TrEMBL record:
InterPro entries: Kinesin-like_fam, Kinesin_motor_CS, Kinesin_motor_dom, Kinesin_motor_dom_sf, P-loop_NTPase
The protein's name: Kinesin-like protein
SMART domains: KISc (SM00129)
GO CC terms in record: microtubule
One Pfam assignment: Kinesin
Keyword flag Coiled coil: yes
Gene3D superfamilies in the cross-refs: Kinesin motor domain
Source organism, top-level taxon: Eukaryota
Keyword match Nucleotide-binding: yes
Chain coiled-coil ranges: 22-88, 124-165
Membership in a protein family: Belongs to the TRAFAC class myosin-kinesin ATPase superfamily. Kinesin family. KIN-14 subfamily.
Domain Kinesin motor: 172-505
Length: 518
């Protein structure tokens, strides 16, 4: 048996061993704890890293989701685009197919057109050839036209000369006698059935011994128009004078006769074509002649005025007021005769002249109502002035056409004016101016023979106004209007005697108012 000491000793040794083991265990534990701490730090670090990686991964995942969404959206848009493009492609294919059909058609058309084009080209070649020929012909024709135009101008000059010679041979003062129609048989006969130049008036009375006494009066004129003569027949003879006026002469046409003998009918006429009088017909003829001469290089300007002379006072029938109150004077100067303050209207057509005549007619009607049948108691003067110039020859010409409806020529006793002071004055004025007209014409005739005779133009307004149109360079026609009524026999005889005096007058050779440009 072991002693207590040994046991204690053993126990101590055990204790020492255990303590050593414990200390080792503690050291080990410490080491392990240190290692554990290290591992724990490592774990923390790994955890942190892991968390960071998880965050990063999640963010990355979210970004990827977004990208995916965007890519999906892009895909959808791309698909839409694609389907649209497909549609476009389909439509383009349809268009292409349509276009190719059209191209085919166009191709066919092109071929047709090409064929036509070839045909046209062939015609064009032929036409060019023809044109070349025609141009040659044209050149020749132009030369020919120029020659013909020259011939025409020369012929126009000859025509003017011949026309004037004919007028001069007929006499620069001519008298026509026109008998107006009536239902009552008249004591007038027209024996010259061929030339219509003669009129014979007759009257029978009882002598103191109871025997029948027959008296005959025979008159000859350039032309006698019987009652059934038409306005056109009278104008046939007058129209030549209208032509003369266009050729540059002064022309005066008078209607003379007692009241109611047909003066106004002859000069102005009725409203229809067939009854139109000398004024509208002459104006129409002047326009016609002027137009015909245009082809020969003539250009004309025309103007008209219309006035009446009543009691030796001039009234403007185309004035603005219905009743003219202005005072008008007659002036003669180098450019011709002018009436102060008178309305002169540029004339462009015969229809315009007709409306002017209507205005003048209405003015005369107003005056007639105011002053007792004034139209028969006044002289009316329509004047058409015509100025021409020829661009080829440089010639110019001035002509005038005066158409005068004279006041009634009845004598004082016949006019019933003796008891009425105003009528007496009127009649005296008319008689004075008509005899002044006769005197001027007679003096012009005498001047023709002697050369230096004074012409009493100033004795009446009418002769003074018409001075230039009555003198040597003019052509005058008097149309004597006669009433066939037996009751008017004495007046008719007076008129016929007056007209015979005029008819026996010859005015000197008419001078054409033509100037040649220097
Ligand atoms: N040749 C004719 N044919 C038909 N009727 C005519 C003819 N001559 C005159 N007359 C008619 O006779 C009437 C008188 O004629 P007009 O008025 O022309 O005479 P006048 O001489 O001008 O008279 P006044 O001096 O009063 O003006 C008118 O009604 C007119 O129509």
């Amino acid at each position: 048996m072991m002693s207590e000491k040994a046991k204690v000793m053993e126990l101590q040794e055990n204790h020492l061993l255990i303590s050593r083991q414990l200390a080792e265990a503690r050291t080990q534990e410490l080491t392990q704890r240190r290692e554990l701490d290290n591992y724990s730090d490592e774990i923390q670090a790994l955890k942190k890293k892991h968390a960071a990686e998880v965050d990063e991964y999640e963010a990355d995942g979210r970004k990827k989701d977004r990208d995916i969404r965007e890519l999906r959206e892009d895909l959808r848009v791309a698909q839409d685009d694609l389907s649209r493009e497909r549609e476009t492609v389909t439509s383009l294919r349809a268009t292409i197919s349509h276009q190719s059909n059209a191209q085919l058609t166009l191709g066919t058309q092109k071929n047709v057109l090409q064929a036509q084009c070839d045909a046209i080209q062939a015609s064009l070649d032929a036409a060019t050839e023809t044109i070349a020929h025609l141009q040659l012909d044209l050149e020749g024709s132009r030369k020919r036209v120029a020659e013909l135009e020259q011939d025409a101008r020369e012929a126009e000059g000859v025509r003017r000369k011949l026309h004037n010679m004919v007028q001069e041979l007929k006499g620069n003062i001519r008298v026509f006698c026109r008998v107006r129609p009536t239902e009552i048989a008249a004591n007038m006969v027209f024996p010259d059935r061929r030339d219509h130049k003669e009129i014979v008036l007759s009257s029978s009375s009882e002598s103191a011994t109871g025997q029948e006494r027959k008296e005959l009066w025979n008159f000859n004129f350039d032309r006698v128009f019987e009652p059934e003569s038409t306005q056109a027949e009278v104008f046939e003879e007058v129209s030549m004078l209208a032509q003369s006026c266009v050729d540059g002469y002064n022309v005066c046409i008078f209607a003379y006769g007692q009241t109611g003998s047909g003066k106004s009918f002859t000069m102005e006429g009725g409203s229809t074509e067939s009854t139109a009088g000398m004024i509208p017909r002459a104006v129409e003829k002047v326009f016609e002649a002027a137009q015909e001469l245009e082809s020969k290089g003539w250009q004309y300007k025309m103007e008209g005025q219309f006035l009446e002379i009543y009691n030796e006072t001039i009234n403007d029938l185309l004035g603005k007021a219905e009743f003219d109150k202005k005072k008008h004077d007659i002036k003669h100067d180098k450019s011709g005769t002018r009436v102060t303050d008178i309305v002169t209207i540029p004339l462009h057509s015969p229809t315009q002249v007709r409306s002017l005549l209507a205005i003048a007619q209405s003015r005369r009607t107003v005056a007639a109502t105011l002053m007792n049948e004034r139209s028969s108691r006044s002289h009316s003067v329509f004047t058409l002035r015509i100025q021409g110039s020829n661009s080829h020859t440089g010639e110019t010409c001035d002509g005038s056409l005066n158409l005068v409806d004279l006041a009634g020529s009845e004598r004082l006793k016949e006019s019933g004016a003796a008891d009425n002071k105003d009528r007496l004055r009127e009649t005296q004025n008319i008689n004075r101016s008509l005899s002044a007209l006769g005197d001027v014409i007679a003096a012009l005739g005498e001047k023709g023979e002697k050369g230096d005779k004074h012409i009493p133009y100033r004795n009446s307004k009418l002769t003074y106004l018409l001075q230039n149109s009555l003198s040597g360079n003019s052509k005058t026609l008097m149309i004597l209007n006669v009433s066939p009524l037996a009751a008017h026999l004495n007046e008719s005889l007076c008129s016929l005697r007056f007209a015979t005096k005029v008819n026996n007058t010859t005015i000197g050779t008419a001078k054409k108012q033509t100037r040649t440009a220097s």
